[in-house]
Specification:
24% helix, alpha/beta, Immunoglobulin-like, eight-stranded mixed beta sheet, single chain, Rossmann fold, disordered C terminus
Length: 676
């Protein structure tokens, strides 16, 4: 037996605690002073005896429970006896299919390595081949012969998503737990550094009997990753920013260089369609980020203009040498102001329009009538309503469609009593009080120093309402009412400049723009995703691929759901609110083809270290030796002996000891602490 965390055995020092507690429970009765012994009958003095522990069974159960608890934390492992070790094994051959495997020669080398492993395995062992990246992809042919699985795997190509060794190891660990045979994992990969998880403990898979990591690197390779963005502040001139990151992979046989070697001059070209607009040269050093700027460019006279940034010189991973960039311009959000003489005064309309259109944040469209007259492509609505009773049905229906609404109070203005009694109005008003700093609006960061409230309308709060702002005398100013889909905010102010000076203060512009940003975060689609990420899509939309092909079926487009974007390019999301361009880019971490360091490899190997290893059949050792002689660089091989976790039998015994200790201790609750 061996222990995974022997340091926890230090907890055995706590075994003295039950012994001390039992000693304290056997104290002698204290002597009490008595005024006279005249009328007391003589008694025989008690015979002195040696103090002894009482309730030995209870003490033994408590000591046993602590011992079992310490051993459980220490994680004991038992080696299976020789008869079980000799059984046939289940071999899982996992081939890395992430973006870095698209480098020149890596995928064919991985398939060749898998073929050599299959040919060297014993005939009575079972085999399953699978592809991995940031998850495991099991084939539907896993019950077929290994040759059929290998042919199906060789017909595939690496994808564009990143790899994650931690997620892969945990997934295979679950598969090994379900297997009736000992599982050996052959991990065929390019041992990429960026694939390491944040926590190295995720690399440990205790259900595996053996791990063999096979590196397919044979020589040094270099890659230059390109990222770019384009922006136009005036709709005419465009600036394109290009970021370059060079990386290299070094095989285990090559010593690391003391000084990185320059990759030479790299030419970056900028295209508009097929026309070359400009080019620059840069000298790159591995693992250092460099930025190039292309400015004084003229916006193409097309909708959604696109520039292409490409490298003139090819490298070992050409898939990230070219990227399309959409020019982003100031695009004000459409906001409907439901304004009629009944619900929005002229002053309130001016205050709201000015605040919304400051810095071109929004484009206000005035709509008359009810909320059902608002265009379907306008996701935000502002309206004044009487908020003393229930909210109008048209507003609730608009929110249920997934849109957002800001309501302000239009109750009749009441002249404050203090003002009526004065010849000259000089009421001080209430200041802004507490704010809900835990809310995403972060209203506590705004400057409320000059804001005063003179007459706050009455507002009936519901049980689920969340007060975001309130005055110093605890009257609600801004309230969020929960809804099933969209967002509904209530601003308890008339916005006329009389009941408060809020519309006249700079804080009002910041408040309205914060609300609009909060609304837009719930309805806006992102402009950019990393390949492999999933996106939540609203209902009644269609997604077009970079080649303009629809990706959703009729049923899928009619309802909301999520969709994974596994390939880079420019996608279009078409819906009732227009057309949105989504740019899917490659993961810059995955494009860094640097290999694992020796310390990382050692840390991974230590996750499987076991001092008490048993011998394995010669046939298995010969098979592994044959595979390594084909040129593979196996980075680690753990013990061949199959191991079984001790917690499987230790935990039930511990639970039984706790139950018996509780039952026995409850029978001794009537024992007095004075020893009687």
């Amino acid at each position: 037996m061996s222990l995974l965390f022997p340091a926890y055995l230090a907890g055995l020092l706590g075994l003295a605690l039950p012994w001390l507690l039992h000693r304290f429970s056997d104290q002698q009765a204290p002597e009490q002073a008595f005024p006279s012994r005249r009328f007391l009958e003589a008694t025989t003095p008690p015979v002195s005896r040696t103090r002894q522990l009482k309730y030995l069974i209870l003490l033994a159960l408590r000591v046993l429970s602590l011992m079992l608890l310490c051993f459980l934390f220490a994680q004991p492992w038992l080696n299976r006896e020789g008869g079980n070790v000799a059984l046939s094994k289940h071999h899982v051959i996992a081939v890395d299919q992430s973006l870095s495997m698209r480098s020149e020669g890596r995928w064919p080398a991985a398939i060749a390595r898998a073929r050599d492993i299959v040919s060297g395995l014993p005939a009575n062992d079972s085999v399953e081949l699978m592809a991995i990246d940031n998850s495991i992809h099991r084939s539907n042919l896993r019950d077929e012969p290994a040759s059929v699985q290998l042919q199906a795997l060789s017909d595939q190509e690496p994808g564009f998503v990143s790899s994650d060794y931690g997620t892969v190891m945990q997934g295979i660990n679950r598969l090994a737990a379900e297997s009736d045979l000992p599982v050996r994992l052959w991990l065929i990969t390019d041992v990429q550094e960026s694939a390491l998880p944040a926590q190295l403990n995720a690399l440990y898979a205790p259900e595996l009997d053996e791990l063999v990591v096979e590196s397919i690197l044979t020589d040094t390779q270099r890659n230059v990753h390109v990222q770019a963005s384009a922006i136009s502040t005036d709709g005419v001139n465009v600036q394109v920013n290009v970021q370059l990151m060079a990386s290299e992979s070094v095989t285990g046989d090559e010593p690391p260089a003391d000084d990185p070697v320059d990759t030479g001059a790299t030419t970056v070209q900028l295209y508009s369609g097929e026309r070359l607009l400009a080019e620059q040269q840069a000298t790159l050093t591995p693992f250092e980020l460099q930025t190039l700027v292309f400015d004084r460019l003229v916006m193409p006279a097309v909708s959604d203009p696109v520039f292409t940034v490409a490298l003139a010189e090819s490298d070992d991973l050409p898939d990230d040498d070219r990227v399309d960039v959409v020019v982003r311009t100031a695009n004000p959000m459409p906001v409907a102001l439901l304004a009629t003489e009944r619900n929005v005064s002229a002053d309130a309309a001016v205050f709201l329009t000015t605040a919304l259109e400051t810095d071109d944040l929004a484009r206000v469209e005035t709509v008359s009538g009810s909320a059902d007259r608002v265009s379907a492509d306008i996701p935000h609505l502002i309206s004044g309503r009487l908020l003393e009773g229930r909210i109008d049905l048209d507003i609730l229906q608009y929110v249920d469609s997934g849109a957002n609404v800001l309501l302000f109070n239009t109750a009749e203005y009441q002249v404050p009593q203090a003002t009526r009694q004065l010849a000259v109005p000089s009421i001080a008003g209430s200041e802004m009080g507490l704010s809900d700093d835990a809310h995403p609006l972060q209203l506590g960061t705004l400057d409320w120093s000059g804001v005063r409230f003179y007459d706050v309308p009455s507002l009936t709060l519901l049980a689920d309402d969340r007060v975001l702002l309130q005055t110093s005398d605890r009257k609600p100013v801004l309230v969020e009412r929960p809804t099933d889909r969209g967002r509904l905010l209530i601003l308890n102010d008339r916005l006329d400049g009389l009941s408060s000076n809020l519309p006249l203060q700079p804080a009002f512009v910041s408040l309205v723009q914060s609300i609009l940003d909060y609304f837009d975060a719930s309805t806006a689609l992102p402009d950019q995703l990393v390949a492999g990420e999933r996106l939540a899509l609203p209902a009644r939309v269609q997604v077009l691929s970079p080649s303009e092909q629809p990706l959703l079926s009729l049923d899928a487009s009619g309802q909301s759901g999520t969709m994974a974007f596994d390939q880079p390019g420019l996608y279009k999301i078409v819906g009732a609110r227009g057309e949105h361009v989504l740019r899917v880019i490659l993961d810059s971490r995955e494009a860094n083809i640097a290999t694992l360091s020796e310390s990382d490899l050692s840390a991974w190997q230590n996750r499987f270290a076991d001092a008490d290893t048993a011998e394995v059949p010669d046939q298995s050792l010969e098979s592994a030796s044959d595979v390594r002689q084909t040129g593979s660089a196996s980075l680690m091989s753990v013990a061949d002996a199959a191991r079984q976790g001790g917690w499987r039998w230790l935990l039930p015994i511990l639970l039984l000891a706790f139950i018996m200790e509780s039952a026995l201790a409850n029978r001794r609750l009537d024992v007095r602490r004075d020893g009687s």
